[in-house]
Amino acid sequence: MKLVFISNYLSPHQKPFCDAAWKATGGQFCFVATTAMTAWRTLSGFKELKAPYLVDISSSANKEVQSIIDGADAVITDAENLDLTRKRYEAGRLTFRCSERLFKSRLRYLKAPIHWLKAWKTRRMYFLCSSAYTAQDVNLLGFFKNRCYKWGYFPEMKTYKSLDVLMQQKEEKIEAPLGVSILWVARPIGWKHPELAIKLAEYLKQHDCDFHLKMIGSGSLDEKCRALIRSKKLDGCVKMTGALPMNEARSAMERSEIFIFTSDRNEGWGAVMNESMNSACAVVANNAIGSVPYLVEDGISGLTYSSEQRFYENVKWLIEHPVERQKMGRAAYKTITEIWNAEIAARNLLQLIDDLQHGRDTSIKCGPCSKA
């Protein structure tokens, strides 16, 4: 089966799926990159990646790229590259549009006519929803009903020789000898809400909780956050490290007991959710984040919240209930290693393609490519 994925550039969050698709199709997979990697991604530690299936549209003849796309059995594309697949979906050939939610902010509802036009043009396509809220958004436009399937991002998955050893490592409190280790990883910018992590620390301190919070990332609110930590006299229990290489951030997850994810609805997916769950952290995450309703079974593989107070209470409860905290960390690990990872996504996508080619709805019951 020939499969083509068209997107801006090959990122570390996409490469594991692409590697798995290359393997699953017996080398009949192609990733068409349409732009260069953005500067801020490079500054964040992302490197330009190479792969045998990578075709850079800027260095290839247009006819060659179009031939690859036209000759594929199935194509995945984002909204920015619809022109490359126009002939396919106008002819009713199997094509998937892939996107996070359309209306990340309420302001975007004002642009609904633009989204409606794009949806109308691609009404014969199927939709891979890289957010639990994408199907709702496109259905509001009146399109893709019963043609939306769960999708997402699939960063590198690690399997550990012994989950027991990993959990014991967290309990040893190597980096947080004074209490339960809590981790926040993001760029300190407005819609990531780093101030909520600091306000959480203040709340926990007021309630005499034994904890230590580490915040990893660099952004426009760095100084404001450091000033807030000083003003609240939280220097002894909150540490901001600035940006760290991806492998160091991942190591911090493996040493942390609780991972907090405070972004709002502007977080289309949030790959740190996959990574922290894969690291067996007990997660507490805002339910408005795109990946959360897909990945987290509330009370089983993590805790979700929709209010600030509930966020504080959830973290406090996990600190006070170590047995349940470990159970959730183990369940989170199982979710990633058994359901939401690149290999399963590639396998499920090929099954979905086969189902659709033979006039069936998806036979996948849960996880990637199940009904959204």
Number of domains: 2
- CATH topology type of the largest domain: Rossmann fold
Low-pLDDT segments, ≥5 res: none
By DSSP, the count of extended strands is 13
Our measurement of the CA-to-CA distance between the termini, rounded to an integer number of angstroms, reads 25 Å
CATH class assignment of the largest domain: Alpha Beta
Structure description:
By secondary structure, the chain is of the alpha/beta class. The radius of gyration is 21 Å and the shape is elongated. 41% of the residues are buried. The protein has 15 helices and 13 strands. The two termini are 25 Å apart. It folds into two domains: 169 residues, 3-Layer(aba) Sandwich (Rossmann fold); 176 residues, 3-Layer(aba) Sandwich (Rossmann fold).
Which terms would index this structure?
seven-stranded parallel β-sheet, Rossmann fold, 2 domains, alpha/beta, elongated, 372 residues, six-stranded parallel β-sheet
The gist of it:
This protein has 372 residues and is α/β, with parallel strands linked by helices.
